[in-house]
Amino acid sequence: MKFGLRLRGGLLATLIMFGAPVIAPVGAVFVSSSAFAQTVQSISVEGNRRVEVETIRSYFKPGPGGRLDQGAIDDGLKALIETGLFQDVRINRGSGGQIIVSVVENPVIGRIAFEGNKKIKDEQLTTEVQSKARGTFSRAMVQSDTLRIAEIYRRSGRYDVRVTPEIIEQPNNRVDLIFTIEEGAKTGVKSIEFVGNNAFSSYRLRDVIKTRESNLLSFLASGDIYDPDRVEADRDLIRRFYLKNGFADVQVVAALTEYDPEKKGFNVTFKIEEGSQYRVGAIDFRSSIPNFDPSSLRAYSRVNVGSLYNVESVEKSVEEMQIEASRRGYAFAVVRPGGDRNFEAHTVSVVFNIDEGPRTYIERINLRGNTRTRDYVIRREFDISEGDAYNRALVDRAERRLKNLDYFKSVKITTEPGSSSDRVILIVDMEEKSTGDFSISGGYSTTDGALAEVSISERNLLGRGLFAKASVTYGQYARGYSLSFVEPYLLDYRVALGLDLYQREQKSNSYISYGTKTLGFSPRLGFSLREDLSLQLRYSIYQQQITLPYYLANCNNVVGSSAFNPSPAFVNANGGVPDLSSTNGLGCYSDGEASLPVRKELANGKTLTSALGYTLTYNTLDNNKNPTDGLLIDFRQDFAGVGGDVSYLKTVADGKYYAPLVSDIVGLVRLQGGILTKMGDDLRMLDHFQMGPNLVRGFAPNGIGPRDLNPFGSRDALGGTKYWGASLELQMPFWFLPKEVGLKGAVYADAGGLYDYKGPTSWTATNEVNAPGCIPSSVNPTVTGTCTGLVYDDSKVIRSSVGVGLIWQSPFGPLRFDYAVPLSKGKYDRTQEFRFGGGTTF
């Protein structure tokens, strides 16, 4: 054994001097070479077919004087073996001390095939393996490819996979490589447990992580597939969650995974050491930079004394302070947060230290992995460029922006040393992902009936960062199409330009007697003022037209030669309730005419609305899809009258506040209101607010507010110019159900009101038989008259209700079922105690 080791160490020359050739095992051969120095030209090569002689000789590097010593020969031999081109290499001494290199080349791969793979396509496996058709065959590489294929299947949740390589020899030193795959069953996560969590329940923590337990609907998602990388990322998500909620000492000690052969799945257990919960005791600012006032950055702090210690707030404060210092000319300023814990009072004194950082500049920004996305789309997310001072806060912001684009599976920005000590190179590593979507959506609601939508969209059109979407909707009562386009960087500024073209048709149903057809176009500009504050400016122009069934528009609005002018007794009897015993004027509605404002809109034909508007949005929600904490406020105003046929000012405000309470119960407070102001001509009924369950649950669509009281008409809702609403809701999980089912319940109380109708109450029509929108009839008289018969209820009654709801974040999309009982209502309001709505994309 010792002799063999010394032989490999380079004492081959001694044996060669005695004329004893030494032969090493096949595939790793060290054979005798001359004990005395030779030149490269004295090397002869045998057995090579594809590899040129000079290529083989090039692996032997001569020393000083162009001579080959023993070390150079040994190094050349090792280098030849490491190329993987040969399955056997031998070195012998020929006559006259000549060196003979005998090689046996590895075969060439004719083709690579995969058999038994159904879940992963050949194309994907071909890109993952190192062995390539027309490449050199290597047993070590094949073994590596076998392990790589198995790893790919494990990443997709199939841990029972078996991969067997098969080599089929062909003429002319060629082979076919076949990988036979037994995919096995899907291996999921059977249980997720948390140990050491006292402040938050396991039910709540399952919301934080990405891994899910397997259930009956797991085939529609992939979160239950065991992925060690995802589990490791979940550890960090749990830690970040605790740090956001004041637990500065938290540690997620381990994430233990154990395969259960009986359940054929993994059990995952997270071990947590929570520590104490801290609040902010004091905030201080210190600076070591001459002439820099640290307290001037106080306005950029998101940390408040007395609030829970929140690491994310500290990090955002550091980022904004560092960027502000850079704007003031301190390009190398670095803000470092510190904290002194008071273990008895459970407080943290936060200190922001502003120091002069190293004077480092960005030499280059190198992009790697963007095979489709254009370079400029990535570079415009940076607020820094080559030659600027290196600012870590701006680099972190750029990384966050790139992730938010949702163009990449992963984004990581790292640094490498530049050409000098004060230069760094930014390396942006990305992995592209699919950004196109084709969806078929279907749903049903008690308002719109059955509804289907087909849409196609692309978030990164042509790799230029453009968004485009086209959709077609078809349903029982709603039909139409829409085209949308967004340029997120208008003229290279961080301003989003959106263009929307749409056509909608709302058909008459049990809630409204008339239908509407709308064709519109709306350009808009979006600005991000802060991370939590955004502004949208828009212009809308649309054409609208009312449609009515024949029996509601046959113009029987006069009796004899009298227009419909109801008597005071008809209008005012019984405290404002029409007196049905009076027949004066009732003949014009005897066959069920639509309300006067509706027929007036019908006669007016197509109406053009041209409006300018804006929306200011403040959003601090922790999760936009399933919020549990934070505030969302929308304030909108639209001014119509920039041309067109109508003019008004519409103002709407809507605020929602979510707060976690106890035992995973989330509280929601919602306040909303709106005002429609007349700016010129009379207001149309169609421009009024129409309210129902969107304001107070338990009422039908268009079921609240002013209503036509004509007992023989369609009794349409007229809408109002003012509304307000308030809601209190408690959302709670069903603790006895698995978290992955996505079900939770709600109890709520709503109150609100809609009033102050200011639309048309009379209509002068000349010879109504031929008036626009009228359908001639043998019973229609040809008399000129003025219709003044609109009798309506506009009481300022507070509508209120209480109810329960079932919320399901299902794989088919969000679904909600509500059952609400009105407690107070107007005399002519319409109720709808049960309501259901939802949809899906598949």
Structural features, described:
Strands 16-17-18-19-20-21-22-25-26-27-28-30-31-35-36-37 form a 16-stranded antiparallel barrel. It has a 3-stranded mixed sheet with strand order 1-3-2. A 3-stranded mixed sheet has the order 4-6-5, with helices on one face. The protein starts with a helix and ends with a strand. Strand 27 (648-660) and strand 28 form a beta hairpin. The longest helix is centred in the N-terminal third of the chain and has 17 residues, at 139-155. With 842 residues, it is an alpha+beta fold. It is built from 13 helices and 37 strands. The chain is 16% helix and 40% strand.
Key terms:
single chain; 842 residues; alpha+beta; 16-stranded antiparallel β-barrel; 3-stranded mixed sheet; 13 helices; 37 strands; elongated; disordered N terminus
From the N-terminal CA to the C-terminal CA, the straight-line distance is 67 Å
**Roughly how much helix do the residues carry, as a percent range?**
10-25%
Which descriptor suits the 3D outline?
elongated
Rg estimate, integer Å: 38 Å
How much strand content do the residues show?
35-45%
Q: Report the total helices.
A: 13
Largest sheet: 16 strands, antiparallel, barrel
Strand order of the largest sheet: 16-17-18-19-20-21-22-25-26-27-28-30-31-35-36-37
**Low-pLDDT runs:** 1-36, 556-590, 766-786
Total count of strands: 37
Class inferred from helices and paired strands:
alpha+beta
